[in-house]
Amino acid sequence: MTTHVLSDTGVMLDRSIKHVTRSLDTIITVTIMPIAFLLLFRYVFGGAIQANTDNYVNYLMPGILLIAIASGISYTGFRLFTDMKSGIFERFHSMPIARSSVLWGHVLTSLVSNAISVAVIIGVGLAIGFRSSAGLLAWLAVAGMLTLFTLALTWLAVIPGLTASTPDGASAFSYPLIFLPFISSAFVPTETMPGPVRAFAEHQPVTAIVNAIRALFEQQPVGNDIWIALAWCAGILVIAYALAMAAYRRKIT
Amino acid sequence: MATASPAIRVDGLRKSYKELPVLKGVDFEVAPGSIFALLGSNGAGKTTVVRILSTLLKPDGGTASVNGFDVGSEPLRVRESISLTGQFAAVDDILTGRENLVMVGRLRRLGNPRETADELLDRFGLADAGGRRVGTYSGGMRRRLDIAMSLIGDPPIIFLDEPTTGLDPEGRIEVWNEIQKLAGDGTTVLLTTQYLEEAEKLADRIAILHEGTIIVSGTLAELRKLLPPAKVEYVERQPTLEEVFLSVVGKQA
Ligand SMILES: Nc1ncnc2c1ncn2[C@@H]1O[C@H](COP(=O)(O)OP(=O)(O)OP(=O)(O)O)[C@@H](O)[C@H]1O
Ligand SMILES: [Mg+2]
């Protein structure tokens, strides 16, 4: 049976990718919103923000990518919820397939679709002045960091996807996640914030992740940030995966 | 497996949802290659029985075996032996009819899922609609696709939970013919239905589930014997199954 996990997951991935490509509105929301933020901060707020940088687009980029991912994963919750309600989950579960493939199909789809929107946004960034001197290794490190972040948030999204009672409930949890970058070092240096806000900003995961990615893009030493960022992502991933699997087991028995 | 042993054996099955007892010791057996109809009012627990037999739900007590495999200890074997058409069509709205069939064919590891898909589309009068998204199908078309998906891979035992609900008379006759063909080819069919005429027409044996137990079961002829034929009418008339049903249910209620 374990030998079928890969081929079954492949079928599920194929199905779920079709869902993504056939609902154009989801692709648009996932990429347009972060691009709008990018343009807004670059051309509207950017001039007034003192970020001690000569290229504010470079400064913005990591936070914008995290916003894109945080909004992208809400569709995983939504698609999962739709599957549960439509009864197709029960069909799959009554078939002789690897049951884990049902969830992994959605999770891998999330990785693929988020990778696409990240690539699109970096393309737009390049067009308006994003530049990086990073080498292949640094780019791979950024890709790895974003993949881990996506994976952690996707498993987080699986929980409401399985347990919510309305489609809104299945996707609304991502709104606070989209908001987190605004209270971090993503758009302005944390030093400018008043005490308690600054304390929150400096100790929430987005700041560490943004700082690590920014340092990788700028070929600066990444310092402790990358380890803190990895620890946050790995921690969220492990806890979210455990909770999601517990919710899943409760659903299928 | 000896030919004499039943395809489905249910013994003392119990199930409660929280405080609500639904099954209070259900017993029945289904002979291989026969059509067995489970009748019951709304909320009698027909779907609950079908979900337990297709390994989607764990019973609180009693045993059930399908194709000789215990649903609790060998669920994968059970899933290899069955196919489920649930009460509500479990189809993927975003995929086309053909893609739905191909998906199931791939999950069941057919050598030529496309050929099988085309053949089934033909058989169920969906050849013209095969390339259209299922979201645009009528209720009857979805139901026919749903049943077609369940036939893929020729499982020896098929569960049909109210297979003809929502079909027009023509569609119903089509599905009846398919069910009879399946049984003719040796497939064991367990169906639930609200249409007593359907049970009369199709089933080799009929069981009535009422208030948590099977209150009567047998062939149509045996059930008819429970009521004396009407004598006052000028033309002697056999009681219909409906009369038998209402009478036995009423007596116990
Ligand atoms: N998940 C659940 N949680 C709580 N109660 C449930 C659940 N599923 C079913 N029930 C209850 O169990 C009883 C039996 O339900 P079931 O769906 O098995 O009936 P049924 O015979 O299939 O009815 P119908 O003819 O309406 O389809 C009903 O009273 C129903 O409300
Ligand atoms: Mg039912």
TrEMBL record, chain A:
Q: Which domain of life is it from?
A: Bacteria
Where in the cell does this protein reside?
Answer: Cell membrane; Membrane
Indicate how the chain sits in the lipid bilayer. Answer: Multi-pass membrane protein
* GO biological process terms, semicolon-separated: response to antibiotic
One example GO MF annotation? ABC-type transporter activity
Q: Where do transmembrane segments lie in this chain?
A: 24-45, 57-81, 102-130, 136-158, 226-248
Would you identify the family this protein belongs to, as annotated? Belongs to the ABC-2 integral membrane protein family.
Name of this protein: Transport permease protein
Provide the species name: Micromonospora phaseoli
Question: What does the record give as the organism's lineage?
Answer: Bacteria, Bacillati, Actinomycetota, Actinomycetes, Micromonosporales
Automatic annotation (TrEMBL), chain B:
Matching Pfam families, A to Z?
ABC_tran (PF00005)
Under SUPFAM superfamilies, the record lists: P-loop containing nucleoside triphosphate hydrolases
Tell me the ranges covered by the ABC transporter domain, including all copies.
8-236
Any one cellular component term from GO for this entry? plasma membrane
Q: Which InterPro entries match?
A: AAA+_ATPase, ABC_transporter-like_ATP-bd, ABC_transporter-like_CS, ABC_transporter_ATP-binding, P-loop_NTPase
Bilayer topology: Peripheral membrane protein
Coiled-coil ranges per the record?
Answer: none
Q: Which UniProt keywords apply?
A: Antibiotic resistance, ATP-binding, Nucleotide-binding, Transport
Top-level lineage group: Bacteria
Please give a single GO biological process term from the UniProt record: response to antibiotic
Keyword Flavoprotein found: no
Q: Which family does it belong to?
A: Belongs to the ABC transporter superfamily.
Identification of the protein by name: ABC-2 type transport system ATP-binding protein
Species: Micromonospora phaseoli
